[in-house]
Amino acid sequence: MTEAGWTLLLTVLACGLGTFVLRALPFWWRLRRRGASGSQSIRRWSSAMGPAALAALLVASLHPLVWPAAGPTRILPVAAAVAAVVVWQRLCGGLVGPTLWGTAVYAWMVWVDGGP
Fold first, then answer.
1. How far is Cα of residue 56 from the mean position of the Cα atoms in its chain?
2. Which is higher by pLDDT, 12 or 23?
């Protein structure tokens, strides 16, 4: 991988980590301030975040396929990423693992194919 490729990869990882921290800190802060009563409302609210996040990733990856210029090889990374998410979810559960694994599989497949 070239220096520009490593720079891009590290930038994407830093942005992902920063996004996670910015979203996780308010949850942790609220849990510490409210105790058990706050954790129930957070659990109820966050239970919808997993499916919403996965649906957003799926829509973002399927969007380029609706354009006429999309070739048949564009569906392969999407299908592989969806399969990776489903397998990880069945085996390990959770939200972060399936999302990261599906994103990594999609990015790898697009990179192997030669880019977007």
1. 9
2. 12
> Does the pLDDT of residue 17 top 70, yes or no?
yes
Query: Which DSSP category does 67 fall into?
Result: S
pLDDT for 97 beyond 60: yes
Q: 109 Cβ partners below 8 Å, 6+ apart? A: 76, 77, 80, 81
Q: Which residues contact 75 (CB under 8 A, 6 or more apart)?
A: 65
CA pseudo-torsion sign 64, 48, 45, 107: negative
27 CB burial (10 A radius; 0-12, 13-18, 19+): middle
Q: Which two tokens stand for residue 31?
A: 């849990």
Give CA separation, 54 vs 34, 35, 47, 50, 107, in Å: 29, 29, 12, 6, 15
As a whole number of angstroms, the distance between CA 103 and CA 94 comes to: 15
